[in-house]
Write a structure and sequence with these properties.
CATH topology of the largest domain: Rossmann fold
Structural class: alpha/beta
Mean pLDDT: 95
CATH architecture of the largest domain: 3-Layer(aba) Sandwich
CATH superfamily of the largest domain: NAD(P)-binding Rossmann-like Domain
Shape: globular
Low-confidence stretches: none
Number of strands: 12
Distance between the termini: 46 Å
Strand content: 15-25%
Protein name: 2-dehydropantoate 2-reductase
Amino acid sequence: MSKPSVLVVGSGGVGTIAALSLTLNEKCNVTLVVRSAFDKASTEGFTINSVTYGNLQNWKPTHVSKSVESAVAENGPFDYIVVTTKNIPDGPSPCEQIIRPAVVDGVNTVVLIQNGIGIEEPIIKAYPKNPVISGISLIGSTNINCTVENSHKDTLKLGPFHNPNISDELTMEKVREFASLYQNASKDVNEVIIEDSALRSRWEKLVYNMVLNTTCTVAGLDVNRCQIGEANENIFRPAMNEVLAIAKSEGVDLPDSTSDYFIHIGDGLFYSPSMLVDSRKKQLFELEVILGNPLRTASKNGVSTPVLSTLYGLLKMIQLRIKEEIGVVQINEADYKGVNSDDYPKTFQDLQSKKT
């Protein structure tokens, strides 16, 4: 019987470690898509410095491809498509478009190891016959020029996303199968936790991401500098209370202690969250899946979110600035002459639609 074939899309710190775990277990054939660093990854491989996987030189997965298209041509079809890229639906390349060349209706299972909520909806809409799995990675891992620094044990929470077009039992079967491919023989190396529902863990992680990630990006400061500026009482706790209230409106009752846990998780580390790092590098960040989608849930359920809504409004402007700076959008000031500024958002959307 042939081994399952797994495509990993995204070769950052999380994606490369995922490819490493899957390869070391020798239960599947792994193809890793590496775009910008393809030449180095395909010839020299990766340097891995991991707290649990050890230190490896010139490591490669089974296959390395430069694009999803070439991966399919060289090694497809795939049983699992693992997506670890940043999820930016308001960017030029949404996830459902990125994986399109690899998807075969009713054949592949899509594993989304990404932040946020509502991330499964565009995938299910685009590929209604394919099971979709939630993956929440709890790992400290970065990849800079094919050198991966992994400081925490690789812990992966897997659960089913509900797809109304296929049975939950089938999706759960795929969860268990993928878990068996990923889990190392020793739980000291990595640990896969199977959950019946993805919601609780996703909302729990959002308590951090919706508040600390966003506030630091607006302020342009790391977490502890924000806290020196009295963010714990002025921003963090009030905003986290709003996150807990939204989660509760969705049937997820998180304890109040969740806020204190995440407020103090980085005491003394002066850590810059990923959204802040992206904004400093003039890269688009995961605004909609981390903040926009939860706020739309709050609006639907009648939950008041004054702090989070203010952060969202400010971050939309920062994201717009980055989009303009990197050429994703163009703003011709002459197009807005004589237009009421209340109508600027609609004017902008109309102009962008014409360009696409």
